[in-house]
Hints:
The complex is a heterodimer of chains A (329) and B (674).
Chain A: H1 2-10, E1 14-16, E2 49-59, E3 74-77, E4 80-82, E5 84-89, E6 94-101, H2 108-124, E7 130-136, E8 140-147, H3 150-158, H4 168-177, E9 185-191, H5 203-212, E10 216-222, E11 225-232, E12 238-246, H6 254-264, E13 268-271, H7 277-289, E14 291-298, E15 305-312, E16 318-322, E17 325-328
Parallel strand pairs in A: 6-7, 6-9, 9-10, 10-13
Antiparallel strand pairs in A: 1-2, 2-14, 2-16, 3-4, 3-15, 5-14, 7-8, 11-12, 15-17
Helix pairs in contact in A: 2-3, 2-7, 4-5, 5-6
Chain B: H1 3-15, E1 40-48, E2 51-52, E3 62-65, E4 68-69, E5 72-77, E6 82-89, H2 104-121, E7 127-133, E8 137-145, H3 163-171, E9 180-187, H4 198-207, E10 211-216, H5 224-231, H6 265-276, E11 281-282, H7 292-304, E12 307-311, E13 320-327, E14 335-338, E15 341-344, H8 364-372, H9 376-384, H10 389-399, H11 407-422, H12 429-443, H13 452-468, H14 471-484, H15 489-505, H16 521-535, H17 541-554, H18 558-569, H19 576-592, H20 596-609, H21 614-627, H22 630-642, H23 662-673
Parallel strand pairs in B: 6-7, 6-9, 9-10, 10-11
Antiparallel strand pairs in B: 1-2, 1-12, 1-14, 3-4, 3-13, 5-12, 7-8, 13-15
Helix pairs in contact in B: 2-7, 3-4, 4-6, 9-11, 10-11, 10-12, 11-12, 11-13, 11-23, 13-14, 13-15, 13-23, 14-15, 15-16, 15-17, 16-17, 17-18, 17-19, 18-19, 19-20, 19-21, 20-21, 21-22
Amino acid sequence: MSRIRQRVVASAIVVAGLMAAMPGAEPTGGAAVSPQDAPQQPTFRSGATAVAVDVTVRDRSRRSITGLAATDFQVFDNGVRQEVAEVSYGKLPIDVTVALDVSYSVTGALLERLRRGVVQLMGDLGREDRLKLMLFNMRVTRTTDFTRDVRSVERAIREATAGGGTALLDAVSVALVSSATPDRRQLVVFFTDGGDSSSITTPAMLTAVAQRTRATLTFVMPGSFPILRTAVGSSGDVRVVSAGVTPAPPRPLDALFRTLAAETGGSILSVGASTDLTATFRRALEEFRSTYVLYYNARGVDRGGYHAIEVRVPREGVVVQARRGYFSS
Amino acid sequence: MTAGVRVGVVLLAAAIASLDAQVPRPAPPQAQFRTSTDVVMVDVSVRAGGQPVASLRAEDFVLTDNGVRQQIESVEAAAVPIDVTLVVDLSGNPRGPWVGHVPVSKIAREVESELQAVKRILRSDDRLRVLAVDRGVQQLSPLLPVSAELRLARVEFDGLSALYDSLATALLQPVEPARRHVVIARTKGLDTISSINAQAVRAIAEQADALFHLVMMETALDSDAALSSFQCNPTLMGLCWPTKRFWVPFQRRLIGPRPVHQLLPDGEALAAAARATGGDLHRASGILEPTLAGTLRKTFEDFRSSYVLRYTPQGVSRGGWHTIAVTVPKSRSYSVRARRGYGIDEPAAPPPPAPASSAPPRTLPEFTAAYERGAYQSVLLGLRQVTDPVRIIRDFEEGGNPWPAIPGREAAFALDLVEPGVFSSRNGAQEEALRMMERFTRLIRQPFEPDVFERYWHFAALTLVEGMLRPSLADAFVTRALERFPGEPRFVLSRAIVTDQRWVAGGLRGAAGGTTSPPAPAYVESVRQQYEAAIALPETATEARIRLAWFLHGLGRHAEALDLLERAGREPVSELSLRYLRQLFLGHVLVALDRRDEAIEAYQRARSELPKAQSARVALMNAFLARGDRDEAESMAEQVQVEQSAEMDPWWMYWQGQYRLYPQAMGRLRGLIR
C-alpha cells in the first residue's frame, strides 16, 4: 500500500488507486484548515486518479493569504472543473533539497555567503523538516542526504572545492527524480549562475521530467555574475578558458528556467552580487511553506497523458500560483 | 664521426622518418643514421707555407678533449666523398630598386651558372644540394650526385630574409656515415624574419657535423638606396625602419672612400660559428668579392688534403661541451686547423629518477631542467600548479632556446608551457599562449617538406586550440596545419570540429541541444561538407560520422543522424570514448524519434562501455521516467549521486574536439625528440 502511495505521490501527485491504508482523515471536502492544525494525511478510496496540487495564494503585495477553504478554490484538470476534496495548509513536513553550483562560476566569497545562507535556512526549518545538500559542477553529488544536522551540512559546504564545468540541467533532473518520501512536500532550491556546459539532458527532456515529478523548483540566480567558460584539461582537471562579468542576463536558458519554475509552481529569485543569501533562502522557504495543498479526484478526464491544471481563487486582488500540470501514466 | 659530434643531427634523422599520422598507434621505429658509440672524428688541416702537409701519422698529432689528451686511433687521408650544401641568398630582390629591372629568370640563370662552376670542382662521387635564403628556406635542388643533371626548382623571391633559419637548416642536414658535409653560404648578411638568432646558429654550428664557410656578398647591396629599400617598411610612407638583425652595415660606395664592413655582434657570432666548425668567414678583398665556386675551390684545397683523426673520448665526462685542440708538435711552423669542439646534449645513461618526495618544478629553470632529464610527468604536475602562466611564457621567450641545437625539443617544450595559459582565466594568458604557439608554427616548419615531427606538433597544437572552445581563434591554426599537410585526416576533422564549435561556443546551442537560434543554411552546409570530407578519410570516418550525426540531431534532422550513427556502428571502433558517445547519441536520436525502448537499449549499451559515466546514467534516468519506470529512474538518480567515477565522462569533453588526444600527441612528440 505504501508502495502505491509512494509511486503516486512521486509522480506529480497523481494518486492512482486506493489510499486506504493511510492513517488519518477521510476526505473532508470543503473544510477550511488552519496552519495550526496537526498534520493529517488525506485518504482516497475511490478508483479515480487522486491528485494533490501545491498552490500559493498571495495578494498583490505578495503577502500570503491564509485561511482559505476548499470551497474557495476552483480547480480545472484538462479544462474540466474538479471538486476539491481536501485542503491542507502547513501540515506536511518539508524536505528541502539545496543544490549548489560549485563549478568555476561559484567560488570564493560567494561560496562563503552560500554557506551562511544554507546554515540559516536549516535554522528556519520546522521540527519535522529536513535538508539535503547537493553539489554540482559537471558531476552531480549528493553531499548530505536529508538531515537536520547543521554541522554536517556546514562542513560539506566548507569542504566544497569549486571548479569544473557545469551540468546544471542534469543536476536539476537528478534532483527532481530523486526518490522522495511520501507525505512530505519537496522543495528543490538551485543556486546557480544559470550556465550549462556539460549536461546531456536537453531542455525538452528536463521540461518533461518536471512534468512527471512532484517537487517545486526554485532558482536562486545572481542578477550579475561572472561568466566563465570552462574546459576539461588533459588530466581530467577542468579549467576556466574565458572569464568576464555581465551585469544582467539574458541567459540562453532563461526561458527554460521560467518554464521549469512555472511547471513546478516554483519561482526564480534574483540576487545581486552582494545580496544577503540568507534572506533569499528564507524567502524561498517561506513561500513554499505558505502553500496550500489541494487534493482532488480527477474525474471526467482521460487518465493517461499530460493533465493541465488551472487553479483559481475567485476573489479580487488575489494572485494564485500552482504547478501547471502533471503526467499520468 | 659519430654520436659525439652528431648529437644534434640525430634529431633531424628522427624528424625525417616515415610520416605517421595516427596518434594512438604505436610509434614506428625512427630512422637512425648514427650509432650511439662515442667515437669522434675530427677533420684537421695542416699546412706549411700555404701548402698542405702530407704523410702525417697518428703519433704526429696531439689531440686533447676538454684538456685531456686522447689516444688517436686512426688517421685517414681525406678521401671520403663530400656532400656540399650551397646556400644562396635571394632575399631582398623584389623590393630593391637596384634589381627592379632584373628579371627573376636572369637571377636564376646566374645562380645556375655559378652552380655549374661549383660542380666542376667536385668529384663524381660527391653530391650537391642547393638552398636559397628568402622568406623561408627554399630547396632549389635536393642532394644529388654531381653527375646528375642540375635542375633548379622554381626560384621565388619574397623580399624577406630568413638567413639564420636557412643556415641552421643547412647545418643540421643529416650526414651519412663515411661522408663529410660542407656548407658554403653566400649571404648579404641581413636577416629580417628568422625564428632563431645568430647565437643559435653558432650553437648549432658547434654541434653540427659540417664544415661551415660563410661568404659575404658585400657588393650586392652597394648603394644607400639599395640598403634603404631593403630595410624599409613600405607601409611607413617611405620612412625607413632598420631591420633588427643585420650584422653588416653596408657602407660601400661605388665612388668614395673604401667600404667599412664592420661586423656587428650578430656577424661576429656567425663568423665564430664558421670557425667553430673549422671553416671561416670570407670577406671581400679589394673590390673582388668571393664567389661560391672560388670559396669552394679554396676550401677544398684544404678539405681534400686534410686528415681525419679518430678517437674514443677517455677521461672526460660524456655530456656537455667538449673543446678539442689539435697540434702537430714536431713543427711549430705548421698551421693546424680543426673544429674547436663538439657538444653532447644527451646523457649516456638515463638520468636518475627524481626522488619521489621532490616537489614539482615551479620556475622556468626548474621546468627546463626537469624537461631535459625527461621528467615529463613532474613538469606536467608543476605546470598544473602554475599560477601565472603568462610569466612562464615570457620567461621562456626572453631566455631563448635552452637547447639551440635541438629545436624540436624546444618546440615540444613550448607546447607544454602554453597549456596552462590556454586554459587560464588570467587576463591575456590565452592571447600570450596563442601568440607563442603561432610563433612556433613557423619555427617547427621543416625547410623542405613537412615531416613527422611537424605533423605531430601541429596535431598537438590543434588539440589544444580545439580544447579552448574558442573557434574563432582556432581557425588560423587549422588553416596553417592544412596548408602544410593538405588532406591530413586529423586536420581535416579539426576543420569541421572548429566550425561546428561555433554554434555551441556562441551560446546558440545548449551542450546537448536546445537551439536558441537556428544557424544559417550556409553555415549548416559548411559544417556538413567539412565533416563529409573527414568521413571520406578512413582514419577519421567514424568520428566524423558521429559528430555530424550529433550536429544534425541538434538541427532536428534525426533520421539523417540515425543513419550516420548506424553506419558508424558498422565500423570497428577501437576508441572507447567514441563507442560510448555513439551509443549515447544514438539514444538521444531515438528519443527524438519517439523510439524510447530502443533508446533505453542504446543508453544501456553506453553504460556497458563505461558503467559509471554520468551522462549515460542521466540519459537513462530521463528515459525511464518518460516511459513511466519510476523505480528505475529513481535508482539511476541515486547511482548518479553516490556512485561516481574519477574517470572523465567522454561526453564532458565532446565539445573540446580532439583535445582528448592531446596527451598522446605530446607523448609522441616527446618520443620524437628523445
